[in-house]
Amino acid sequence: MTADETRVALVTGGNSGIGLATAQLLNERGYAVAICGRDAGRLETAVNETGAKLAVQADVSDRDAAYAAVEEVVGTLGRLDALVNAHGILGAPTPLADLTPEQWHTMLNINLLGPIWTTTAATAELSKTQGAVVNVASINAIQAEQQMAPYGVSKAGLVGFTKYAAADLAPMGIRVNAVLPGWVHTPMAAPHFEEAGVTDGRMSTNYMGRAASPRELAQVIAFLLSKEASFVTGAEIVADGGHWIKMQDLAPLTD
């Protein structure tokens, strides 16, 4: 593959967690990687850690910023073959009745509208390369957890968007899929692992008995972007160590 044909990937949230691990892996596999995030300091550090060719400081929950970010990537690196929407926030556990409009707006803007804006911004360029999109959702998209309504709703919406985008963009040769992680050792999830006495209990809810590493999720994402997944679109790939099936197994039986 010549320099002009080098595949280009944009990873939002590429300065931390799953996004950072994905940027690292794609760089290792020959992509020219652009990372996008809101924190300039973390972006600078992440460039060194990932080998990214470009860092774009942007809040993609703002539509204009998302379109400008994609334009900068294409203008600098020449094309776009892959988009990974790995940015997101978790939020503090809050009872439903206590949630404020601001909490709902913030969560939905970042976790749902952000990927919508980046995907629509990237569509024209991805159609030129028969590219692919991977959205990082969550197991909470399909399994409710108490006091996590905004997060779960935003991720369920992202899975829904993935399916509709896959349907609309397939005629253009663009594939769109979602990954639904369970517990992953990331900076965003770290406070939950640090809660005294709860880590072992949380890990016991999946058959693997542990949390994933960001690299393990990055490998799933890289597969979905690859030609090996050329017939996969509109899929929701659960990568949760067996959490979902174990929760079904533990469901109480009723008469």
TrEMBL record:
<dbReference type="GO" id="GO:0016491">
    <property type="term" value="F:oxidoreductase activity"/>
</dbReference>
<keyword id="KW-0560">Oxidoreductase</keyword>
<dbReference type="Pfam" id="PF13561">
    <property type="entry name" value="adh_short_C2"/>
</dbReference>
<dbReference type="InterPro" id="IPR036291">
    <property type="entry name" value="NAD(P)-bd_dom_sf"/>
</dbReference>
<dbReference type="InterPro" id="IPR002347">
    <property type="entry name" value="SDR_fam"/>
</dbReference>
<protein>
    <submittedName>
        <fullName>Short-chain dehydrogenase</fullName>
    </submittedName>
</protein>
<comment type="similarity">
    <text>Belongs to the short-chain dehydrogenases/reductases (SDR) family.</text>
</comment>
